[in-house]
Write a structure and sequence with these properties.
Catalyzes the transfer of a methyl group from 5-methyltetrahydrofolate to homocysteine resulting in methionine formation. It catalyses: 5-methyltetrahydropteroyltri-L-glutamate + L-homocysteine = tetrahydropteroyltri-L-glutamate + L-methionine. With about 775 residues, the chain is α/β, with parallel strands linked by helices. About 40% of the residues lie in helices and about 10% in strands. The protein contains 27 helices and 22 strands. The longest helix is centred in the C-terminal third of the chain and has 23 residues, at about 740-760. The N and C termini lie far apart (about 75 Å).
Amino acid sequence: MASHIVGYPRMGPKRELKFALESFWDKKSSAEDLQKVASDLRASIWKQMADVGIKYIPSNTFSYYDQMLDATAMLGAVPPRYGWSGGEIGFDTYFSMARGNASLPAMEMTKWFDTNYHFIVPELGPDVNFAYASHKAVDEYKEAKALGVDTIPVLIGPVSYLILSKPAKGVDKSFSLLSLLPKVIAVYKEVVSDLKAAGASWIQFDEPTLVTDLDSHHLKAFTATYSDLASTLSGLNVLVETYFADIPSEAFKTLTTLDGVTAFGFDFVRGTKTLDLIKGGFPSGKHLFAGVVDGRNIWANDLAASLNTLNALEGIVGKDKLVVSTSCSLLHTAVDLVNETKLDNEIKSWLAFAAQKIVEVNALAKALCGQKDEAFFSSNASALASRKSSPRVTNEGVQKAAAALKGSDHRRATNVSARLDAQQKKLNLPVLPTTTIGSFPQTVELRRVRREYKANKISEEEYVKSITEEIRKVVVLQEELDIDVLVHGEPERNDMVEYFGEQLSGFAFTVNGWVQSYGSRCVKPPIIYGDVSRPKPMTVFWSSTAQGMTKRPMKGMLTGPVTILNWSFVRNDQPRSETCYQIALSIKDEVEDLEKAGITVIQIDEAALREGLPLRKSEQAHYLDWAVHSFRITNVGVHDSTQIHTHMCYSNFNDIIHSIIDMDADVITIENSRSDEKLLSVFREGVKYGAGIGPGVYDIHSPRIPSTEEMAERINKMLAVLETNILWVNPDCGLKTRKYTEVKPALENMVAATKVIRSQLGK
């Protein structure tokens, strides 16, 4: 029985790639230095899988930024503004597309399906001259082969690539991206031919869009594409991999009848109904890659249950055609549990990170072959039983409080228009009030202070003094810049979710449980293992300290319940909605304590609300109902004069705008500039928004500093579709990833642009 891994984390167990990338971007190391770190990481990953016994090991899942950007480079689909003139695409062009540069904005970035991973959105049109411009897939296959490891090269499938793309600026929005398939397929044929020549016997195409709601036009594109590729693919075993959800029945029929395809991969963790489709008919002689080990969470696999599923599948497809796999790439989980020295042994026994998951995959494959490791299976069963019976998992009081929420929809008693009037009387803000999203740059010194405090190398008094001084600097800077509503800069927080999870019961934390979000950006999701409650106030001290330094309004900064949920590794023994309601009650307590402390503006970030939206439309209404309800719970008890903000970023919000309105926040700040102001189109189409809104005027994920004129132009575009009295001016997102040398001039220009427009409005 064979085993397979869809993909593997890239950053390394100690974030080696992150530090190498940032050193290269800061011109502290060479391209050769970066390539050496990457090569060492790839070799380590391939060797690890080979040593465990994995048969089908992936290559070309490593990326310096993002696999979709890698596909764009492979296809030579570089937007003209980057000045690429042909040849092999190098780091300068590649990273300019990803991050922008001093003179050019980056390409749009958005969420990869319903994960916290981001991808760079291809910009395409009828005039794109596709060309084979990156040989990365072939180079990495050869690299692994030279190390004695025969891999499956992995490519983003051509149809999914186009479906996930967007028309470039200036291209009519009705342009059919799928009309580009013949040009794209021509490049794929070159890549496949090179891989065959290099000795590849298998190739994997990731076509995850097959699990979404596709119409017949899209499904026909899959049929036509693989029919066109069939002669080039002849002689290869071809795996088409899907993940993240059940595959719809029509898509299943299309997939399993594709020309030239010999194997199909399915997610049996999130795709619980796919088994029924396979029972209804699976093509004879084809391989089934069964994703029974969860690639998106960190809980140990229920090996006995997975073995039952695999036995059922074996009865349908045959022993020699069944391959045990992960549900998706392990990119979405932490790297290795061995590196966790501070987790207590009980919780640690419940977990499996990427390194442990490949062992689980192989153990299941061996068990199907009659080589079951009884001790391993027994240990797994004991860990599952321990988790189920542990008293630390359940808090009866919390469960009762959450259950009681279902009798109300928790709306504030007064409508938003009346609330905004009450708030303006109290805050006395100018037209087009300016603010930032929350965080300010996280300097080396600031990180050192937090690190030394956690390691007990400095006292609490020294820590408080240092953080207070940092807050003072941020407050003074904002006042000098003449920003209207201030933030304290969040110097006490390494991460917006981790900070709150550390202070809530029911959470556990890792030392090295890092997961890539985009580029070099890594997050360390907390682990929600039990019922959630708030033992004591979490932010009141720092918000009150900051408010005491200024007469201007100081925002209290909180992370909302849906974002805490979606950016954590969540317990899988109860519905996610139940856990979210528990978190909402904890945030509600914090909101009310902030209000009592005199904080008049409270921001409850829901950056990840859209991210958790199910991929199938039939399941979306239920999610939005409990997610939006959870947000409203947090602030239902505040006075009309307390202004509630929320923030969202880097997703497509247009299709959930009515749910955003239903959140009933007083002000929403939302990413806008990097997505070519796509958000504004929903207002041009007639959606009425009566609350305050701040579409971002510049992209904080790029080092580029926009001019005053550019930001003034953005504000004018907003005023063309939004009322003056509701518009706020702010960046796209928090500033923690930027340097002060970038932040200060960008905010200066933002405030200057606002004053220019105020002056024009005054006339």
